[in-house]
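Hey Z.,

So I finally got round to the guanosine-5'-diphosphate thing we talked about over coffee. Here's the setup:
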Amino acid sequence: MGLFGKLKESLKKTRESLANKVEGLIYGRTQVDEEFYEDLEEILIQADVGVQTSLELVERVRSAMQAKKWDDPRKLHPMLKEYLREILVTREDVGLKISGNPAVIMIVGVNGTGKTTSIGKLAYKLKNEGRKVLLAAADTFRAAAIDQLEVWGRRAGVDVIKHQPGSDPAAVVYDAIQAAKARGYDVIIVDTAGRLHTKSNLMDELNKIYRVIGRELPGQPEEVLLVLDATTGHNAVNQAELFGKSSGVTGIILTKLDGTAKGGIVVAIKQTLQIPVKLVGTGEKIDDLAEFNSEEFVEGLLGSKQ
Ligand SMILES: Nc1nc2c(ncn2[C@@H]2O[C@H](COP(=O)(O)OP(=O)(O)O)[C@@H](O)[C@H]2O)c(=O)[nH]1
Ligand SMILES: [Mg+2]
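And the result:
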């Protein structure tokens, strides 16, 4: 299955609940009235699109329908999809930036969201694209975290730089950078700790890692990817707000999209933070990672019946 198919597949649950409801509403009614708009609003809110965004979307559709003096619900479907796409599409290129030599990708996020798993998948993907990848085990807080990264390193067939549990994460990253310079690695992916984001010492730790990278490799890290668990709904938006403020997040890896029927969370994140979703976790296996594609995503969310 290609990357494109994976995203589609992971939206299966969302498609079954949200898209079917949207299609049911649009193709099941003969005219748009107040009740129609209220139902549409409710469907979008239930899918985690976000109250504000849902209201705005429906308001835009309502105005456009009224301006054109249309009352056939089927005319509303492409309009709704177009407006949603406008929210999701970022002007800048949404693909990963990995032009440095070496390039550094820093992965941040709360424990359990899927950081280490996503690093394994990303390492595998970049390696298959022909890049020489090095992992830095900078989540030194728990011994198990280092072991887990090593397991993923072996699976992906890439090297891992590690220190003792409890050691300084910034020192691990420093060593990884020296190793990359000496041995010609193309990309360093940095795993970090994710104990509660409300503790300012975690943010200090992340900022220190960030500064060490910038000092050793000017212009790096090119990417700071925040990992968010799609199944946690609006907690994910709150986490994005907290991390987004302090650690220069450039993009989002949204994990476990396969485990939720509320894919609308992507819209809420984008709308609240203006941070693009770059990659999507579609399962627990090494190739369960898809590039985010807004076209495909909107079809999954709102249906494709014409
Ligand atoms: N279904 C599903 N599970 C995932 C995905 N990504 C991660 N997980 C699971 O989430 C759990 C936590 O992942 P882990 O990488 O240890 O999170 P970390 O604490 O942020 O490093 C593990 O059981 C993973 O298998 C995904 O895209 N889909
Ligand atoms: Mg981890």
